[in-house]
Write a structure and sequence with these properties.
Elements: H1 2-29, H2 73-76, E1 97-101, E2 107-112, E3 118-124, H3 138-145, H4 155-165, E4 168-173, E5 178-184, H5 189-201, H6 207-224, H7 228-240, H8 262-272, E6 278-284, H9 288-299, E7 335-342, H10 351-361, E8 363-365, H11 383-388, E9 394-403, E10 408-416, H12 421-437, H13 441-456, H14 461-472
Parallel strand pairs: 2-6
Antiparallel strand pairs: 1-2, 3-5, 3-6, 4-5, 7-10, 8-9, 9-10
Helix pairs in contact: 3-6, 3-8, 5-9, 10-13
Length: about 475
């Protein structure tokens, strides 16, 4: 906008200094050829005004002291960014957060907000990272089996009780933790705590259930292997942490699924599902003291530590290994490329800087950006769009930051025609280096605004709950 303003001013200066005078001279000098017009014919009825004047006229628009509704004046100086050091009013409010630790090590956290719904979840410090090559897939198996009923509830009773409350139950397994969470009405918070406590402490873990679940998990693994981005991310972890089990797949090794047995699952449950590894979180219209009492009643009998002989594995820090990997799969008609670097962990001081960097890189999609735009991709103030927009065979690209407890990965994912593999790889290597030398200020302001909006949009109890657990762990 600043360049356009300067160009506009120079344009009017050019007009005032030469163009109008030359135009007037041209008309006046040729007036005899067109109806015998003379200088007097160009005067208006009011002798104080003329259609053409000999002196320069200032055609610039004078701005008013007060800005109109759609005025761009406030963003001309700093692209709409807030003054340095000023905290936006919505961010000055912090929701009341409380945490209590029970005698057996269970941490109880609440964050109160005015909401018609509540979210209750249990974070377990147990993920695929703590498996071995022989027990690969045990964490994901256990997550599935906990939905098969307990010693106090059959599967049908379990499902019926949740439906009658109008609640929902979901779970996922990651590399470092497993989350079981429910969403309910505030009056049913205690019943949700009871259900989750029964699930985690009294699972059946029968042989028949394990055998029945193997085909389901294998199908889930086969489906995930059809997603190129999922494949690239698993390969990036394996390649970066090849000397640590952090690099092994979250859902387990597909070749080891049918080797998982009852003893493996029970050992994993006894080792990790103990008091010091649990965080029970509630968000929404909840009272902290009442919730602590509910958790103490349902989880109070849980052992604080694992029995002797059951030790958590792979607690040492993963070491990032720079390396390359090429995988060929003729069933995929396009190619995926991932270039990833060592990055900060959850608790590192540069964590938020890398969140911002992820949004500076942004995302690109050929059907949304590039040639689908009316404007030139080079004029979008985005390095990623400028580099990808003129390459019609590159379909998608995006920045990715995945932090963990003691490590992290940051990089770029690309997807496109195999002819462009070398170019996509080059962009993944060169783009972070280019940002080290030059970064467009517009990209910084836009990424900062995007991160700010994303943080402000974390409003639902479920979204807030899912951010609390990893930070406490």
């Amino acid at each position: 906008m600043l360049k356009r303003t300067l160009l506009r001013d120079n344009f009017f200066k050019m007009n005032r200094s030469g163009l109008f005078k030359n135009a007037a001279k041209f008309n006046f000098s040729n007036s005899s050829l067109h109806g015998k017009r003379d200088f007097e014919d160009n005067r208006s009825k009011d002798t104080s005004k003329r259609y053409m004047v000999e002196k320069d006229t200032d055609f610039r628009v004078t701005t008013r002291m007060h800005n109109l509704q759609f005025s761009k004046a406030p963003i001309l100086e700093n692209f709409g960014d807030l003054p340095k050091g000023e905290i936006p009013e919505p961010l000055k409010f912090v929701r009341p957060f409380e945490m209590t630790v029970l005698n057996n090590g269970v941490r109880v956290c609440t964050e109160h907000m005015d909401s018609p719904l509540c979210a209750v979840g249990v974070f377990v410090d147990a993920g695929s990272r703590y498996e071995t090559l022989e027990t690969s897939g045990s964490a994901h198996f256990l997550e599935h089996l906990l939905f098969k009923g307990t010693k106090n509830r059959t599967k049908s009773q379990f499902e019926s009780e949740i439906e009658q409350m109008g609640a929902t139950l979901d779970a996922y397994t990651s590399r470092e933790h497993t989350l079981y969470h429910m969403q309910c009405f505030p009056r049913d918070t205690g019943r949700c705590v009871n259900i989750l406590g029964d699930m985690l402490q009294n699972p059946l873990l029968g042989k028949n259930q394990i055998n029945e679940e193997k085909d389901t998990i294998k199908t889930e693994l086969e489906e995930s292997n059809k997603d190129v981005q999922e494949i690239i991310m698993e390969a990036a972890h394996f390649n970066s942490y090849r000397d640590h089990y952090m690099g092994q797949p979250i859902l387990g090794d597909i070749d080891n699924i049918y080797n998982v047995n009852q003893d493996m699952v029970k050992e994993y449950h006894m080792t990790h599902y103990v008091g010091q590894n649990l965080i029970v979180v509630a968000t929404g219209n909840v009272n902290h003291k009442d919730f602590v009492d509910q958790v103490a009643r349902e989880f109070g009998a849980l052992n604080k530590n694992a029995p002797p002989g059951f030790e958590k594995k792979n607690t040492n820090k993963p070491i990032y290994t720079p390396s390359m990997m090429f995988m060929r799969d003729d069933e995929h008609y396009n190619a995926g490329v991932g270039v990833f670097y060592d990055a900060p962990s959850w608790q590192h001081e540069d964590y938020y800087a890398f969140l911002l960097m992820e949004r500076i890189v942004g995302s690109y999609s050929a059907d949304r950006n590039g040639h689908a735009r009316l404007n030139d991709p080079m004029k979008q103030y985005s390095t990623l769009e400028a580099n990808m927009g003129d390459r019609p065979d590159i379909s998608r690209a995006c920045g990715i930051y995945t932090p963990y407890r003691d490590c992290g990965l940051f990089g770029t994912y690309f997807y496109g025609n195999e002819v462009w593999v070398r170019y996509m790889t080059y962009q993944g290597i060169s783009q972070p280096a280019n940002y080290g030398m030059y970064m467009n200020q517009v990209e910084v302001f836009r990424a900062r605004a995007r991160l700010w909006q994303e943080l402000l949009n974390i409003q639902s109890p479920s979204d807030v709950l899912q951010l609390i657990g990893p930070q406490i762990l």
